[in-house]
Amino acid sequence: MLLFFRLLIFTTALHCHAYHFGMGIFDITGPAADVNMMGYAKITQTVSGIHLRLYSRAYIIQENRQTRPILFINLDLGMTSQLLKTEVVNRLKSEFGDAFDETNVLLSSTHTHSGPGGYFQYFLYDITSLGFVRHNFEVMITGIVQSVRMAWENRVDGKILIARGILTNASINRSPASYEMNPADERDRYSANVDQEMTLLKFVHSNGTAIGMINWFPVHAVSMNNTNTLISSDNKGLAAILFEKRMNSNGRLLGKGPFVAAFAQANEGDVSPNIAGPRCIDTGLPCESVHTTCEGRAEKCIAFGPGRDMFESTRIIAQRQMNKAWELFDAATEELTGPISFIHQYVDMTAIPVSYKHFQGTTCKPAMGYSFAAGTMDGPGDFDFTQGSKSGTPFWNFIRDLLKEPSKELSDCHSPKPILLATGELNLPVPWQPHEVETQILRVGNLLIVALPGEFTTMSGRRVREAVQEVVRHRKKQRNKASNPFYVALAGLSNTYTSYIATPEEYQLQRYEGASTIYGPLTLPAYVNQFRKLADALVQPQSIVHAEFVSACPRNDVRQNDTFLTVEYFDETSCEWSVRFTDSDWETKFIWTRNGAINFLLGESTAIIEWQLTSLDGICVPGKYRIRHFGKAKPLFSSKLQSFEGSTKAFRITCGK
Fold this sequence. Notes:
This protein is an alpha+beta fold and 657 residues long. The protein has 13 helices and 36 strands. Pfam families: Ceramidase_alk, Ceramidse_alk_C.
């Protein structure tokens, strides 16, 4: 019997004044010819040269040199693929041992649409690149690991300052009709229909020298349009270059440090840098607002930036981000204080029960809607697709069904989305879109960095941020603890890519962002609940490891004088595992549930194992652990019981207060 688990991993360390950190930068520019670009999904947009190189910028942050770090990596890429994250972590493990794994490493991409593609394991995202491009993938991996290696070698003691400010005239909402679908009282709380706040961290060496910067600000990196064939890091990459040139003004070449500046992405799902707005290219008149068309055609409606061409527009939007970052950097005085910690969990996003206002149901297997094929005002699609489509056409349904007709269950779950691609029911030659998704939060003192696994719209990101902030406020009130205010930064396009995440209200209009919300109308509430849970586990006084297994009925075997679980400790000296806790111990809980009628007939159920890190005598033992689950299953067409067992991956616990 196959056994799967989902493990909630939390770790923290005791804060001791200054932090220990290092930065590194390295080139990740792939092939400069003959590879399709990732972003616009335009088959004719093939690389034919370079305008700006792509870089990996790595930031390692620790309590001190001996404690476990967190690692934030900002990439000049279209998005982060799960395959990229997995391979980076594997290579870091081989070089740095237990210092890094998937739980404390966060990869976030700037979302440039002008870099070579072909680095995904999910079929949908590799179609226009005509499959996986090994050469490009290896260049990326090598460069990312080298940037981490440099950050590791450059670690110093110092302090981290935080500053926030408002940047206007650098972004507009490209789906204002969808945004207006959100409740009026919610919209009234904000001054704009895009997030205009920039959050910035300034890294200062103990000798007083500033050595690094990260900022988060939401705006699509699509100043370079879909006619461009030169590799470019777009407005965010150029902003980073401009900042680094100013700080490294001693004649150093670009991309060589020592100062490293990251202009990271946030909740940019419906945010465009093309602030002149959409116009009909044949008449110059404004486009129709709901469907973003001109005389019924999407390809005639294109948004333009503030410049005379895409190169000047890229420079202008980059300069505006750079200027605001410089202003905040220069004015930063507030110091982050508190522990370095992190929390991470894989989640099956395809069948999560959700209750949100009048919306009741579950999330869905992935699917893409008709309006996905229409593209956006930043890059229109082809054929006769338009945004705002709530019904299919006989012709395109016929073409779709040649590939895979969506099941009734899938269609009902995604309503009112008319399904163009039933990606969740397509697994040849490989799965088309992810089912299991990484969720993660990093903590740097009184800042929480939320890893968004896709493109969250403005209001979607605001709801995540508010949910996390509310959890922190509640926990602080419970503990009656006065401390510095908590801040939340949203790190967009992190760890894996799940297309878009619109609010349930925005989803109803079925513009591009809603049609590309792959887990259905309740996607965002499911994520909000998940990040709320992670934030709560991260800041609560006590900590619990939570592992979830596909299991079988425990009545099949009562395991007399035995156990359904073990919590095992790895002895670094003997290299052997030993059992620390079983289901007899107060510190553990074995919780069993059935999974509904269908799974009841199949005999499939869920076993949840919880382990309280602090024992009855108040002791927490740091080190490497794993959790194992045991039982017996009854096959569908046999009465003979079969033993099974499963194990989590090894994980490290760092105890603290």
